[in-house]
Amino acid sequence: MEENAIQTIDIEGNAVPIEALIEAYTAQKSAKKQAKKGIRKRKEEQELKPYQAELIKLQKHLEETGQKMIILFEGRDAAGKGGTIRRVARYMNEKHYRIVALGKPTEEQRTQWFYQKYIQHFPHAGEIVLFDRSWYNRAMVEQVFGFCSDKEYEDFMKGVKGFEKDLTRQGIILIKLYFSVTKEEQARRFERRKTDPLRQWKLSEIDVQAQERWDDFTNAKYAMLKKTHSHNAPWTIIRSDDKQKARKEAMKVILDAVDYADRNEELDFVLDDTVVVSGAREIEIMEAQRARSGKFTG
Question: What is the pLDDT of residue 6?
Fold first, then answer.
């Protein structure tokens, strides 16, 4: 037999190349995997719909009462903030909500009062504004990468509680969500962004350095929670390695913030304590980690 001869197998009298059989099997296996993935995703989206229906009721309540709501979505890169925002807003009346994701400040904005660029996006009566990152950029990304001076950082940390107290005193409902992803899961998501052409646009230079600066971000997270968690504007931590659970629990946190009419009493609004952690409890957990190992671990 020649060394390079094509190996075949007889199937009903036909000589079929083994390589072709392997390719067909691999393609079929991939198709089945994609089909299962599609079924799972549809199931997950269906699980969210009852809570998305409740969000529409909440939105209607805010419209009728003229209340204003601001929701901050914070956390490391690839923590699941954007996907959760899209699910929260998916069925809302687009006339009464806005998603705000501000880019790098302009030279003019750098000369303005720090909060000015955010205030111009604040809600009017009956509106919800969802910030995909917020003024807390100063406490995290800007501080870690040196995009602000030490004085600018210190001024922010000293003044933000007073700023938020003024907001809530004026009747604004302020919800602060911090999405917490593990280092291993963040690395997996970054790798997917590198290899998936539909996700490559999400990968930034900051993302590339996020793993290398993991401990710096962890220290910044602790300082932020310690200094800015308050009775008027508490932080809620969302463990987000499981994106589906994180999305559902984030919706519950938002729904629990308002006593709106016609709430579906048959729906489970109890928060999953393996996913949702108060800011005060997260501080305790991080301090216990530091006491045991000499540093924060997440």
Answer: 76
Q: Confirm whether 122 is domain-assigned.
A: yes
The predicted pLDDT at position 35 comes to 67
Q: Is residue 262 part of a domain?
A: yes
User: What are the residues whose beta carbons fall under 8 Å from the beta carbon of 109, sequence distance 6 or more?
Assistant: 116, 117
Domain membership of residue 251 (yes or no) is: yes
Alpha-helical runs (H) found in the chain: 18-65, 81-89, 107-110, 116-119, 141-145, 150-169, 183-195, 205-210, 214-228, 243-256, 279-293
Q: What is the extent of the structural domain holding 186?
A: 63-293
Torsion on CA atoms 229, 233, 234, 236, rounded to nearest 10: -120
Burial of 121 (0-12, 13-18, 19+ CB in 10 A): middle
Question: ∠ at Cα 183 (181, 189), nearest 5°?
Answer: 75
In a domain, 27, yes or no: no
| DSSP label of 197 | T
CA pair distance 291, 293, nearest whole angstrom: 6
* Residue-wise pLDDT tens digits, 37-73: 667 778 889 999 999 999 999 999 999 999 999 999 9
Mean pLDDT of the chain: 92
pLDDT of 1 over the 50 cut: no
User: What size, in residues, is the chain?
Assistant: 298
Looking up residue 99, the CATH number of its domain turns out to be: 3.40.50.300
> What's 216's DSSP letter?
H
